[in-house]
Write a structure and sequence with these properties.
The protein is an all-alpha fold. It contains one helix and no strands.
């Protein structure tokens, strides 16, 4: 369960970073 939660958080941060880069470009 901890691993799944970690992957979910990591995916959320990755998605957020991608969104920010798209807005800046």
């Amino acid at each position: 369960m901890f691993g799944l939660r970690y992957l979910t958080a990591l995916a959320g941060v990755s998605l957020r970073a991608t969104t920010i880069q798209n807005l800046l470009s």
